[in-house]
Task: inverse folding
């Protein structure tokens, strides 16, 4: 079941039957981790023919009420208000993911090292986006999050100085990675390639008052350069060259490092979670399926956060191991599999009871686990 905050926002846009259908589909996503319409229809718990269930799902995904600005924007804004205080800095990674003939462009926000989708669009072509498309997707997000200090982060697809100038004009911070073959000009010097700056593993560099184009009228910005040193035999094969209007090297590097959250989100939505790439739906229905994924994904993340706050994540998955720098499981993973663990116990309650009875020497551990399970259930 969706949290009350979700239901309160969704009730204003959906009828009672539409809301129930949405809840069932989100529930199916959490347990079956599949967005193929045929799989959703096969598992949909409605007492009607399979073909009728399939048409029901198809009609639902084509509803005009499943609009990102009308349905998702008010909800994600309400969610963010519970997690991030207005006026604080938020990081917005922009990126694309492409599979088969589909080309999904997403603007997201970083929350606890993971990205949450804010706005998305399937592009009508394969390959990179252009400046007009990037601006069109960013505009509504900038309006939605106007109460926050925004930092837009992009990889080399978003390297254009025109985008940087546009963001700077809107008083938005940015950190946009550049290709090492790009040219820059420092005061009193000729144009030179970024690769000629002499950056090497373990080095950092911050230059101010840099021209990134020969065109007039775009002003000067800063360049933050960083090449991660090799550690335990692991390192990067090239450095980062970042076009930014942030005030220091440390802030620019920290902000750009957060961009990895959107790559983790794409993995969670595809092979690592909901298997979005398996869907063969039309663009219209795919857009609605991404909306369902956004609902399920944010919900699982918040539930995982709640489970961790109760100190019960050790019942869901392995904790951080010795010598492991990063945590093993995200809030999303803990929330997703915590819900599945609870459901498995409810489905297998008779077997579990019998097993507990024939192993009385483990009774104390079973009782402790049942208390933990009761705490975990309060997160859902």
Result:
């Amino acid at each position: 079941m969706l949290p009350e905050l979700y239901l309160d926002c969704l009730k204003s846009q959906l009828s009672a039957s539409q809301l129930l259908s949405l809840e069932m589909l989100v529930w199916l996503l959490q347990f079956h981790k599949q967005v193929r319409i045929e799989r959703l229809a096969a598992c949909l718990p409605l007492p009607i023919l399979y073909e009728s269930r399939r048409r029901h799902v198809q009609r639902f995904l084509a509803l005009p009420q499943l609009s990102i600005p009308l349905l998702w924007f008010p909800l994600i804004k309400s969610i963010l208000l519970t997690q991030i205080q207005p006026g604080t800095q938020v990081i917005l990674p922009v990126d694309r993911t492409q599979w088969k003939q589909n080309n999904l462009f997403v603007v997201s926000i970083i929350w606890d090292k993971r990205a949450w989708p804010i706005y998305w669009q399937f592009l009508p072509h394969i390959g990179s986006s252009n400046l007009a498309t990037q601006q069109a997707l960013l505009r509504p997000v900038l309006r939605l999050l106007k109460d926050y200090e925004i930092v837009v982060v992009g990889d080399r697809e978003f390297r254009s100085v025109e985008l940087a100038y546009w963001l700077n004009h809107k008083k938005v911070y940015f950190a946009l990675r550049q290709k090492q073959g790009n040219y820059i000009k420092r005061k009193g010097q000729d144009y030179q390639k970024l690769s000629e700056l002499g950056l090497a593993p373990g080095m950092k560099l911050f230059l101010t008052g840099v021209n990134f184009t020969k065109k007039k009228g775009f002003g000067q910005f800063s360049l933050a350069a960083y090449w991660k040193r090799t550690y335990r035999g692991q390192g990067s094969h090239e450095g980062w060259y970042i076009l930014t209007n942030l005030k220091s090297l440390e802030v620019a590097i920290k902000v750009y490092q957060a961009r990895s959250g959107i790559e983790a989100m794409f993995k969670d939505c595809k092979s690592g979670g909901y298997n979005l790439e398996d869907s063969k739906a039309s663009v219209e229905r795919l857009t609605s399926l991404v909306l369902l994924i956004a609902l399920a994904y944010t919900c699982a993340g918040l539930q995982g956060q709640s489970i961790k706050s109760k100190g019960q994540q050790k019942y869901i998955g392995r904790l951080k191991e010795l010598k492991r720098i990063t945590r093993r499981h995200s809030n999303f993973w803990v929330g997703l599999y915590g819900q599945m663990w609870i459901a498995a116990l409810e489905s297998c309650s008779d077997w579990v009871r019998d097993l507990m009875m024939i192993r009385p020497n483990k009774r104390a551990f079973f009782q402790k686990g049942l208390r933990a399970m009761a705490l975990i259930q309060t997160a859902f």
Summary: The first helix runs from residue 4 to 11.
